[in-house]
Amino acid sequence: MPVAQGVWDNARARSVLRSMFDAAVASADPFRVLAGHLPPKPRGRCVVVGAGKASAAMAAALEAAWPDVVLEGVVVTRDGHAVPTRHVRILEASHPVPDHRSEVAAKAVMQAVQGLGPDDLVIALISGGGSSLLALPAAGLTLDDKRVLGKQLLHSGATIAEMNTVRRALSAIKGGRLALAASPAQVLTLVISDVPGDDPAVIASGPTVPPPGKAEDALRIVERYRLDLSPSVRQALERGVAEQKAQNGLVDPRNRVVMIATPLMALKAAADVARQHGITPLVLGDALEGESQFAGIVLGGMARSVHAHGLPVQAPAVLLSGGETTVTIRAGEAVGKGGRNTEFLLSCAQFLGGEAGIWGLAGDSDGIDGTEDAAGAIFAPDTLARAAQKGYMAESFLHAHNSYMFFKALDDLVMTGPTLTNVNDIRLLLIA
Known about the structure:
The chain is an alpha/beta fold. The protein has two domains: 10-27 and 263-431, MOFRL domain (glycerate kinase, domain 1, 3-Layer(aba) Sandwich); 34-207 and 211-250, Glycerate kinase, MOFRL-like N-terminal domain (Rossmann fold), CATH 3.40.50. Helices cover 39% and strands 16% of the residues. The protein contains 16 helices and twelve strands. The strands form two sheets. The protein has a six-stranded parallel sheet with strand order 3-2-1-4-5-6, with helices on both faces. Strands 7-8-12-9-10-11 form a six-stranded mixed sheet, sandwiched between helices. The longest helix is centred in the last third of the chain and has 18 residues, at 292-309. Keywords: ATP-binding, Kinase, Nucleotide-binding, Transferase. Residues 17-238 form the MOFRL-associated domain. One of its GO terms (molecular function) is ATP binding. Residues 318-425 form the MOFRL domain. InterPro entries: GK-like_C_sf, GK_N_sf, MOFRL, MOFRL_assoc_dom, MOFRL_protein.
């Protein structure tokens, strides 16, 4: 078993950080975790539906676990995340902004659960990213209405929970409406969580789960962020208030929701690897939110305290955190290429100023940080110096939200390709 002895250098630190990140992602592999959560096989039909970045892999894992069950149904995943299946149909659509395929897919999913009886079982495979992949507008709306509002939300600074609250209110399939359409069949929802708190009503906007809070919450959110609503969108939100109240009491008590992978489970898997290397892990939480740049400064300050004072933990140590930070693009700002993880890392590296003995890795567990092709990146004590040799100043790249290009120029991007799962972001700060 390796231990944290001897000299820490860039090669060793990078290797250990990458092994922790890979372990976190592997903990949410559907082929590892799904089979142990399946119920007794149904007497009637078994219909499989789902949406999310991991849904296709989840469907393949279900087929592998139940090879003697005749499965049927359809799931939708993000472009590039499809895997071969024998029975369940796999569709692809756009993420994070829905396209016409998202609407086609949502209609196919709703059609798959029609005409079922009480002996039938619907297994809903839900993971992060499902909100944009199941885009069935509420009555009176078009997909363009939802797409315009979705773009506003992405650039508003709203949290993922807030964005999903609005999406749910404008949908004909989310907020438990898929489960209502499947009645009187029983619905088992297997979930890979990507949101703080693991609320199943928030993940993919909860197509099989009654919405939390009040219907009025969506209206409060659009007002808080001063979003420009068309008359049809505002009318649809107002109608949703009455619909949500009428939905209460209609949920089948046999329906169940099971979390099969979560951000905290992923952080614990990374912590186990740290211990194997003689490194003390400190899990700061799986629900950190806020601006990526601010998070980089705060966690960088904690890493500096560990390095200088041995507080709140003695080095060698690793600070682990999950959740989803945000990058708010304000009017008039230059916009380069970057995601919330690379922006977090660049902010952290700039704050630390090349301090020796501190390395960082942050990445999205789905393999794609924002809209770019990297999961995230890694920084080392020599990152800023290497950049300066090329004439790159971290501050200018950070101001332009161009963190992807900064780390690409240094060959410090973390490239995994689609991982076919999603338990949100994994942030690791290693202090020697």
